[in-house]
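hey so u asked for the seq, here:
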Amino acid sequence: MSYRHVSHAERYVIYHLRLCGLSRREIGRRLGRHHSTIARELARNGPRAGAAVYWHEVAQRRAEARRCRQARCRGREHRRLHRYVVSRLRRDWSPEPVAGRLRRDYPGQVRIRVSAETIYQWVYRDAQAGGDLFGHLRRRHRRRRKQDRYGRGRGRVNAGVRMHHG
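ran it, structure tokens below
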């Protein structure tokens, strides 16, 4: 499912339609957007407790400020964690045992815990940046393979092949 952020012009329209007292579903219909997109916009950038009006300028500033903030990456923040994970990966450990061993080696330190999925994301981000950590995984892919739907092509009998009793 693709998602397209609400534009400044759409925020302006939402502002006026909210002033007219229209529902989220009706605003979504008029903008050609799903009503949950409108609800999400109002929840993220709408009025805080006490304020009753959705202001499009304030909403635009909030959205731009959120866009500028970088997502936290614990691998860069916590050097000891990063060194630990990379050293195990370079010894050809899989991410699952690395994550499990972290819990065992640092039982009281929650900040040093990281999931296997996060380690995979670090490895693939490293590969995009030109790194070589992916070469230490069992399947040495630079990127993840797209998953086919479960059972596609399995258990089907080809209609062109006939079975005869002999």
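The helical segments are 8-19, 24-31, 35-45, 56-68, 74-77, 79-90, 95-105, 116-128. Residues 8-68 form one domain.
lmk if thats what u needed
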